[in-house]
Design a protein that fits this description.
The chain is α/β, with parallel strands linked by helices and about 325 residues long. The strands form two sheets. A six-stranded parallel beta sheet has the order 2-1-3-4-5-6, sandwiched between helices. It has a six-stranded parallel beta sheet with strand order 9-8-7-10-11-12, sandwiched between helices. Helix 6 links the parallel strand 7 and strand 8.
């Protein structure tokens, strides 16, 4: 009889965010060897699986506490808000760290934020995305789209992207944002900014958003905190170079030597990178070469092997 694994994800398919994409992808990997279910929360009234994998230390804290009481293993996958906010300030998040038998961070810079006893139970698993053939652009495109994919909320800092659109000087630059307005005030700001250099497309199904990203000249990620952004992986594996806020989470994904960083919240610096990516083809090609070298790290087979190995190790203590 196959072992049973439940994945607790506070985000559902409706939210369509990075946590949901991780839960969806891991469930597909694990179904090769285990009976898998995905749920928003686990509690003691439900049948107990052999293993619980929980995303988000704070938001999944009730599930983790309830399941840990069964004596069975708990894998905790730490998100950006966990690493860069909650484990320093939230008692429930810290309790989740204590209760988890195994802990996962999504890029290596995250390990340094964990207390040494917790670090011993932790590992890095890079997320993945299937490669897409790079888009063939015309020799002189009418627009050079700079994509941003992420729901409008404070952690993603969409205002920096919006402000950069008003500061670019290349006539063909067009900053295109895909994502729902989780913060109504940010949605109002995005709607008000619509113009020649900025478009807000709203929410979009994942597959459609990825096809839109593939057609971008570059992708911008302006976040103030990230655990290991899926959108970076999806850009890199589509041949789209990244312009990234200079935070640990992005450095852990792209490497310290990556030339496409700008200071957090600095719209003028982002606008300069956008302009340079269009005006300086050699620099744009250099960004793309750096991203191409990272693509192997984000291969689905590598993530699948790591997830299956983690589950097998955690389940070794069961029965």
């Amino acid at each position: 009889m196959a072992y049973t694994v439940a994945i607790a994800s506070p985000a559902s398919q409706k939210e369509n965010n990075g946590n949901w994409q991780t839960a969806r992808r891991w469930s597909l990997f694990l179904r090769d060897a285990f009976e898998v279910s995905v749920l928003r929360e686990w509690d003691a009234s439900m049948p107990a699986p052999d293993l619980l994998i929980a995303l988000h230390a704070r938001r999944s804290a009730p599930s983790i506490a309830a399941f840990a009481a069964t004596g069975r293993p708990v894998v905790l996958v730490l998100t950006g808000t966990d690493l860069y906010r909650d484990i320093a300030s939230d008692a429930d998040a810290r309790r989740s760290l204590e209760l988890a038998s195994h802990i996962v961070v999504l890029q290596p810079a995250g390990l340094a934020l964990l207390p040494p006893p917790v670090r011993k139970r932790s590992r890095v698993i890079f997320q993945s995305a299937p490669s897409l053939a790079p888009w063939r652009f015309p020799a002189r495109p009418k627009f050079h789209d700079i994509g941003m994919i992420g729901h409008l909320r404070a952690e993603k800092d969409p205002l920096t992207f919006i402000r950069a659109a008003s500061l670019v000087t290349e006539p063909s630059a067009r900053l295109v944002h895909i994502g729902a307005a989780l913060d109504p005030a940010l949605g109002e700001a995005a709607a008000a900014a619509e113009g020649p250099h900025y478009r807000w497309l709203g929410s979009m199904p994942h597959a459609q958003a990825r096809q839109r990203l593939k057609r971008c000249h570059a992708m911008a990620i302006t976040s103030v905190m990230e655990g290991g952004a899926n959108v970076i992986i999806e850009a890199v594996t589509s041949g789209v170079p990244v312009l990234a806020s200079d935070i640990d989470g992005n450095r852990g994904m792209l490497g310290d030597d990556y030339p496409g960083y700008f200071p957090v919240g600095d719209a003028r610096a982002l606008a300069r990178l956008v302009d340079r990516s269009i005006a300086d083809p050699a620099w744009h090609a250099n960004l793309r070469e750096h991203c191409d070298r990272r693509a192997a790290v984000f291969a689905p087979d590598a993530e699948r092997s790591a997830v299956l190995a983690l589950a097998s190790e955690a389940l070794a203590s069961v029965r």
